[in-house]
Amino acid sequence: MILLVVGYLGFPINGWDGMDISLQERKICRNTVQGRYLLSDDNGHVCDALSVDQWSRCCPGTGEKFSCHGCNLVSQCCNTYEFCVSCCLNPAQTQKELALQVKIAKPVTAGTYASVFDFCAGRCRHNSESVVHENAYVSEFHHCFSLPSNSSGESTFYTLLVTWICRQGETCNSVCRSKGQSCVPSKLAVLNKCEIMKKYLACKGSCLASIGSDQPAEVAEDAPKHLNPGACLFTRTQGMLSCDGSHRHTRRLCPCA
């Protein structure tokens, strides 16, 4: 008679040993968890929430890695949180040594991110440069992963972008293209301030609140009097800011990169 030695769970001992080794080698992923339809894991994959492996919590490795679908690589902002995280995880987009120096909050006592995944997941979700007055988005690209210039979280606006003044009636898209660059819509709100406009424009007729997709801008001096010739205009309706906006009596201030 032949006896088969069985482990305590009913598996042959040799078979159980092999299974144990294979399980230990499987990677346990971290992922963005809260997505209703999509998830991004720390491998840089994005997948449907239903297709995540229940044991490893990893996305299938068959899809595109470090996908930047729906992202503007100039502004480093995306219209979907999960693709923002995936794109941010690409070493070509985010330098690990710099990401791990970024403070999670502005106070000096704030901690730093423990990993690039933590940086990307946090930065894409909470980035002050993508919102205005803390309750409205600057553009449709809500999720931004751009690295600040230092660990205090200061904006990289002045080091990454060039500001150009349009010809009268010209759009920001047009003037940026003429310089071999692209307009960065998420940075229009940075220029949409009187103190910034006065650094670049004469603002002879003062600085006035207005409404228009062509702002921030300066009214041409030959414009009709009711349009306040020479005045600089900013808008309180941040959602109207657009790289495509123009007005025949204004010259726009544009962020290009």
Automatic annotation (TrEMBL):
The lineage of its organism: Eukaryota, Viridiplantae, Streptophyta, Embryophyta, Tracheophyta. One of its GO terms (biological process) is positive regulation of SREBP signaling pathway. PANTHER family: SREBP REGULATING GENE PROTEIN. Its main location: Golgi. GO terms for cellular component: Golgi membrane. It is found in: Golgi apparatus membrane. Transmembrane segments: none annotated. Keywords: Glycoprotein, Golgi apparatus, Membrane, Transmembrane, Transmembrane helix. This is SREBP regulating gene protein. Pfam families: SPRING1. It is a single-pass membrane protein. Belongs to the SPRING family.
